[in-house]
Amino acid sequence: MSLKSDTKSAFDFDLSASSYNYLQDIMLNPYTVTATGYGYSHNGKITRNDGTNWQNVDGKGIWRPDGYGGPQEISFGIHGDRYYLTNPVYGSSVWNEASSVTSQTYSDGIGETRTGALWAQDAWRFAPMWKLTLGGRLETWQALDGFNINTVATSAGAITSTSAVNQPGLSATNLSPKASLAFEPNKDWTVTANFGEAYRYPTVTELYQNVTVNGVATFANPFLTPEQDLNGELNIERKWTDGRVRFTVFDERTNNAIISQTNLVTTPTTGVQTPTTTISNVAAIRMRGAEVYADKDNVAIRGLRLFGSVTYVDSRILSDPNWAGTNPLTRLPDTVVGKRVPYVPDWRAKFGYTYHWADDSWAWTVAARYSGKQYSTLDNTDIVPHVYGAFDNYFVVDTKLHYNATKNFSFDAGIDNIFNEQYFLFHPFPGRTYVLAAKYQF
């Protein structure tokens, strides 16, 4: 539900509230694959999310001391959210029948998080060419009633040991300031400097949900602490009536960064390797870099639009005193300090064109995307490309032809990944794909 005013007077407001509930969410899995490798076990697991729910509420007010369009606009607001998780996993006597649940509980994850916040911001054009924006957000967060059941079972599914743990309550109260200064010497140029501090709180699933989906086991961490982000950015933008160019340099430091990573874990008794995702705080990471973006209409001929961007990020792990890993390649103790931050490529680029003709009834787009190598592990030892778990660099070109047949009918035909690039982002991504679409608007 939402209620918003748009009076364009001295005061306006925006109120919203939402609630989401899992009424039924049941996932059925066989416990294992049979010894021959061609069938499933008769027994299995039933995972349920029924009862998981969350609510959000926001209120915002805007006060314009000098009226609408004046040099100053003060906004303020309140926020609240609540997230509740319940995620039991039961044994079943017949894996593909939801009614076959047994008294066996393989795991359970229950918990709740709550956040409340007050914020205010003042955007003030104190001189014709200058605009200053100052703001702050005061937040209080807590995690409560966390509870986990974990078990150890045989290869046939018989439970050999069970542990039930009431997880510790967590809480934090933080103030996040922000500042932005914009200089506009004329209508074509804008130079903006931004600084901000923000906190990212652990989600209820990161804290309490232990679950296996599509063969990947994820283990929550009930001891996570909020991550603190410190961001600085400088933007220089040149605008035309039919295009713009923007250059950005940025620097971001994150303390207690919440990072998940997926590794292959070998079961000692069976030798079976299971993809396993763990979540942890990394003491400090840093990302700095630059980006260039541009777009321009009517280049050389009417109707031809060019666009593109290039981004470079130097991401580094600065500190992680809790790391105690061993390099899987050398079998020697290793360090993660100085390694790249997981899932952050060094280079990323996109560029292309769109050509409109016949009074804009037709449009032809060709776009290319490039991403550099990514790592999914903190120690950057996942270096083998084109295998499950790898995050490869890739260069992909797509094209699409769009036709507005009438005011109501439109058609699209295209080819994604024209050159059939083969790459993995944990799993293999689609090769050359042909797309046809039609749309009718009433």
Which terms would index this structure?
Maltoporin, Chain A, mainly beta, globular, 1% helix, 1 helix, 442 residues, 23-stranded mixed beta sheet
How many separate structural domains?
Answer: 1
Fraction of helical residues: under 10%
Q: Name the CATH architecture.
A: Beta Barrel
CATH superfamily: TonB-dependent receptor, beta-barrel domain
Whole-angstrom Rg: 27 Å
> Main beta sheet, described?
23 strands, mixed
- The amount of beta strand, in percent, is over 45%
**Helical region count?**
1
Based on secondary structure, the structural category is mainly beta
Separation of the first and last Cα atoms: 26 Å
- Low-pLDDT runs of 5+ residues are none
What is the H/E string? EEEEEEEEEEEEHEEEEEEEEEEEEE
CATH fold descriptor: Maltoporin, Chain A
Just give the CATH class: Mainly Beta
Mean pLDDT: 92
- Categorize the overall geometry: globular
